[in-house]
Specification:
D-Maltodextrin-Binding Protein, domain 2, about 290 residues, alpha/beta, disordered N terminus, 2 domains
Length: about 290
C-alpha cells in the first residue's frame, strides 16, 4: 500500500470545516428513536479529547437518563469552536486556547484538564524512551533506523496542527528538525488524532505524537515513550517533572441550556474528575474565561 505523503494544502482549514459540517449532519441524522424522546446534548471537537469524553458521557447518561449525549467524530479544535459559534453543537472540545478572532464571538472557554503530550512507538518496537537529541536526529532525517535495524517511519501531523507547535517549542534544534520533516516528501501524515494513532499502531517501525489520554481511553496498542528519562503519567505531569502538556478545554456558547449546564457541572464533579484522572487527564488548574 503506498504511503500517505505530506502535501502542501492551502485550503486545509476549508476542508476541515467542510468535514466538520458533514460529520455533524451525519451524526445528527442517525439518533435512535428512544434518544429523540430525550434532551440531546451534542459534543464535538479535538480528537484527543473524544475517548475520555465518551466515558464521561456514558456515566452522565446512566446518572441522568433523561438526557442523551452524542459525542461526534473528530471535528478538530477549530471545527469544534466553529460549530459552537454557529449553534451546530452544544459543547465544543479544544486542545488550544481561543484565537483573537474567536474571542469576539462571545463564546466561553473552560479548561477542564491537562494530559501529557507524548511520543509513541509501534507496539512491535522494543523501546522505552527518547531524548531531545535523539528526536532531533529522527525529525531532521539524520537518523533513519532503530537500534534493531528497522526503518523509522515518522508519523507527522499537518503543518498548522498544534502538535507541531508543542514540538517546535522543545528547543531551537527541534524547531529546525520539525521544519525539515514537514518539508520532506513521502512522509506519513495523520490528518486527525485518530488517523495518526492508527498509523502508529499499524505501520512497522512507526513513531509519532499523541496524548496519554488517547492511549488509555481509546485502549491503543502503541507504546508510550519516556521523554528525557521521564515517564508520561498524570503524577509526573502534576509534579511538574513531565514538561510536555496538552491542555483540554470545553467551548461553550454565551447562553447555555439547562442540559448543557448540567453536563458541565458533571464534568467537574467528583465522579467526572475520577473518570478523567483514570484516563490520563490531570484535573487541577482549571479556569473559565470569555
Amino acid at each position: 500500500m503506498p504511503d500517505k505523503s505530506h502535501r502542501t494544502t492551502p485550503n486545509i482549514h476549508t476542508l476541515r470545516c467542510a468535514a466538520a459540517a458533514v460529520a455533524i449532519l451525519f451524526a445528527c441524522s442517525f439518533f435512535p428513536a428512544q434518544a429523540l424522546a430525550k434532551e440531546i446534548i451534542k459534543i464535538g471537537g479535538t480528537g484527543c479529547a473524544l475517548g475520555a469524553m465518551k466515558l464521561i458521557a456514558d456515566a452522565f447518561e446512566q446518572a441522568y437518563p433523561q438526557y442523551a449525549v452524542r459525542v461526534l467524530p473528530s471535528l478538530d479544535s477549530s471545527g469544534g469552536i466553529m460549530a459552537v459559534t454557529e449553534g451546530a453543537i452544544d459543547i465544543g472540545l479544544s486542545s488550544r486556547p481561543l484565537k483573537d478572532e474567536e474571542r469576539t464571538k462571545g463564546i466561553i472557554i473552560h479548561e477542564y484538564g491537562r494530559t501529557p503530550f507524548i511520543f509513541a512507538a509501534n507496539g512491535r518496537l522494543n523501546m522505552r524512551g527518547l531524548s531531545t537529541a535523539e528526536l532531533v536526529e529522527i525529525y531532521s532525517g539524520r537518523r533513519q533506523s532503530w537500534g534493531d535495524g528497522r526503518r523509522i517511519r515518522l508519523v507527522l501531523r499537518p503543518r498548522a496542527d498544534s502538535d507541531n507547535v508543542i514540538l517546535r517549542k522543545i528547543s531551537a534544534d527541534m524547531d529546525r528538525a520539525v521544519e525539515e520533516a514537514l518539508s520532506r516528501k513521502g512522509m506519513l501524515v495523520g490528518l486527525t488524532s485518530q488517523d495518526s494513532n492508527i498509523l502508529i499502531e499499524r505501520t512497522p517501525g512507526a513513531m509519532g505524537t499523541t496524548t496519554l489520554t488517547e492511549w488509555i481511553a481509546e485502549k491503543r496498542s502503541f507504546q508510550p515513550l519516556s521523554f528525557n528519562g521521564i515517564k508520561p503519567t498524570v503524577a509526573t505531569l502534576a509534579e511538574g517533572r513531565y514538561p510536555l502538556v496538552r491542555p483540554l478545554y470545553l467551548i461553550l456558547p454565551p447562553r447555555q441550556s439547562g442540559p448543557v449546564k448540567h453536563f458541565v457541572k458533571f464534568v467537574s464533579s467528583r465522579q467526572g474528575q475520577r473518570i478523567l484522572e483514570e484516563n490520563g487527564i490531570w484535573v487541577s488548574g482549571k479556569r473559565t474565561a470569555h
